[in-house]
């Protein structure tokens, strides 16, 4: 489908890209490549860091985007969740800095993630990695891009030998249960960026542990879908957004041709059985 056939989603994508780029400049003012950040750091319950950069980006995006999407609710990692969002058909889902630990440590693999969700599914999304100069974006039915160039998932047709990003222990459990050999990529701290790499074909597969929230994944979900892939839960079900529960179970990202086999492999790992899984589509 051409851009002219989905003008509302394309217009929303353009606004999200512009906002993400401005947000990235705010974050970069506090980022030191290869060195600890100079930003003030606090810690949430559970020990997750939050920096003054996270909060500054969150505040900026609220000011910039809420007037542009006046009918939309708001869900962000750095804003207290307001149940009133459930009354909105449209919602902005934001992670000001996805991969804050990487940001703090001077690792450039962090991202600003923004999605516009309508009727439970994202219709526009951007994952912007400012320190890498990479912008991943998509609009519903209008394709996905990296720095303005169209992207597509891997053409791989079997799981065995696939390059995967995800937690080492979880990946190894799937390998053993399904009798696979997978090439595990080095740790990718931003989940949104990890999924975006599947959209480009740089990774064939990705796994996420059961700690992801909607703000980590909504934008990347659309980007992957528009690039020919899919993000599902461990039951193989497509994700719906703006529900009361925003914490997700184990998630799987793959090209559409591989997702059924990938779900089967993860199911074997969950069952503790280890018969050979079908390795193709």
Could you give a short description of this structure?
With 281 residues, the protein is an alpha+beta fold. The protein contains 7 helices and 14 strands.
User: Unreliable runs, pLDDT <50, ≥5 residues?
Assistant: 274-281
By helix and strand content, what is the structural category? alpha+beta
Count of discrete structural domains: 2
Distance between the termini: 25 Å
Name given to the CATH architecture of the largest domain? 2-Layer Sandwich
> CATH superfamily of the largest domain, called what?
Fructose-1,6-Bisphosphatase, subunit A, domain 1
The global form is globular
Please write the string of helix (H) and strand (E) elements: HEEHEEHEEEEEEHEHEHEEH
Query: Helicity range of the residues?
Result: 25-40%
Write out the strand line-up for the largest beta sheet, numbering strands in chain order: 3-4-5-6-7-8-9
Backbone CA Rg: 18 Å
Largest beta-sheet details: 7 strands, mixed
> Tell me, what is the CATH class of the largest domain?
Alpha Beta
- Residues in β-strands, percent: 15-25%
**Average residue-wise pLDDT:** 94
DSSP helical segment count:
7
- The CATH topology of the largest domain is Fructose-1,6-Bisphosphatase, Chain A, domain 1
